[in-house]
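Bumping with the actual sequence this time:
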Amino acid sequence: MDENLQGTPPQSPAPAAPTTDKPSQLQTLGILRLISGILNCLIGFSLMFTVVWILPAAFGIVVGILEIINATKLMANPIRVTKPAKPLAIMEIICIINGSVMSLVVGILALVWYNDPKIRDYYNSQTGA
């Protein structure tokens, strides 16, 4: 006889696994951050030859290099970062002292997108939390 007719309850379906599809905001952020990193390096190197802007230029170069590294990790599939880079986003906003408007926009977008529930759920699913 059929086992379901003997009184055993039917098994419930397994719970859905968390999504592993990378949100489009992270891919966009990676591309924007790569462009911003290249621009920050170029601006930093051009300002390096002035006496007044040596420290801001060095800061711009360092932020540019960090942006390029983070952008390559964000554009990988799956991403190779385990948590949002909020300090880098704040550093991008500070780069306005060099006149880098692109970096300001990318930093603000990053902070806004990092608070998106879809992005937070994606990072949590990548770390297993």
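The tokens above came from a reply further down the thread. The helical segments are 24-47, 54-75, 86-94, 101-114, 117-127.
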